[in-house]
Design goal:
The protein is mostly helical. Helices cover about 55% and strands about 0% of the residues.
């Protein structure tokens, strides 16, 4: 059984019928083609497992590279800026 889609928009109705007449196609074909084209042009927000793994590989490599470029004696310890209560000196 074919499914049915009801769109309650005068503008959509007029545009679909006008385009169908111009192309010599059914309204269903025109609407399906338009939806297919819109879907193909829209970015896919889903990330594949392979893409996620590649992103993590790149991030790990960047972290390693950053570590290699660290200046001798550089640290993330900022205790000299704060007193024993954690307030700025």
């Amino acid at each position: 059984m074919e499914r049915q889609l009801n769109i309650r928009s005068d503008e959509a109705y007029e545009r679909a019928h006008r385009l169908a007449k111009r192309r010599g196609q059914s309204v269903t074909t025109v609407v399906a083609d338009a939806l297919r084209q819109a879907e193909e042009q829209s970015p896919n927000p889903e990330v594949t497992t392979k893409e996620a793994a590649e992103t993590m590989r790149i991030l790990r490599e960047l972290a390693r590279e950053g570590g290699r470029r660290k200046k001798p004696g550089a640290t993330s310890d900022h205790n000299d800026f704060y007193d024993k209560f954690g307030l700025p000196k």
